[in-house]
Amino acid sequence: MADALVAEIEALGTTLAAARASVNRRFIGQGQVVDLVISSMLCGGHALLVGLPGLGKTRLVDTLSTVMGLRGNRIQFTPDLMPADILGSEVLETAADGSRAFRFIEGPVFCQLLMADEINRASPRTQSALLQAMQEKEVTVGGVHRALGRPFHVLATQNPIEQEGTYPLPEAQLDRFLVQVNVPYPDRETERAVLIATTGAEDTLSEQVFTAETLLAAQMLLRRMPVGDQVVESILDLVRACRPGEADGMKDLGNSLAWGPGPRAAQALMLMVRARALLDGRLAPSLDDVAAMAQPVLIHRMALNFAARQRGEDLAALIARVTMRVLQVEAAA
């Protein structure tokens, strides 16, 4: 590895440590959640935060907007929200001389960090309005392609789908989220710290660490980070093993799946293992990074079939079994 690249990676690691510390001052005690969301932004992707109301998901996104130095907008998804409320629309205006012309009014999607709050409370039609924005970083309104901000990230919050008034996200949209981040209940000590920090006269403030330009530079640097052949092969083996009937010797796992991850999952896993190594101050990812990133990258890109659900199988446990088998093979090779 060239000395210049090593120096750049080490400098970025220092900056990332400052960003994590700044976020953790306002979003207390959820280090793994913070690391996953920062990693997704470092990869240039989007994150889906899943958890019950009141766990701080909105506070986390608001804090990240400040720390990352991005221009942010927020959309509260409701059943009556329409696609034009997200993308914008053309209005017919009459000038002083009587002439008429259409003028495009930008919607809240025209920003750098979009918070899609309670995204699964909107109808599938409205949810699909984000598909082009998330994949191509542009939208088409009135036949005109309009570029979004650079960088462009969507951090969406989602209530558990068992709750009243929610709609499951379409598979195509789920696949566009780089990771799914489950936000759990805090432990007692964390909840005590949150209670004290958030019920006083003053709120803790975060400091800006990144700018849009430095975040874009960090995203390019991450893609230059070397990945060993063993890690590459383990990523391929793991993703392919999570498809029904794909992997030899894992038919018991494949027979439990209705559908599995596509090539985009392997791309996401490759980026996320690099991001985890960077956050840990390492110069290259390892098999441990693959094991740690497998569930957040894969869990929203797979589904159990009816028979597996009837048997009471758990998708997270299945991913853990596949990961353990694949990495044991790779480590022995």
TrEMBL record:
User: Organism's domain of life?
Assistant: Bacteria
Question: From what organism does this protein derive?
Answer: Gemmobacter megaterium
Q: Which PANTHER family match?
A: MAGNESIUM-CHELATASE SUBUNIT CHLD, MOXR FAMILY PROTEIN
Question: Mind listing the GO molecular function terms for this protein?
Answer: ATP binding; ATP hydrolysis activity
ChlI/MoxR AAA lid domain boundaries: 256-314
| Protein family membership | Belongs to the MoxR family.
Question: Pfam families annotated for this entry?
Answer: AAA_3, AAA_lid_2
**What's the name of the protein?**
MoxR-like ATPase
Keywords associated with the record: ATP-binding, Nucleotide-binding
| SUPFAM superfamilies according to UniProt | P-loop containing nucleoside triphosphate hydrolases
Signal peptide start and end residues: none
Q: Does the keyword Nucleotide-binding apply?
A: yes
Residue ranges annotated for the ATPase AAA-3 domain, each copy included: 46-179
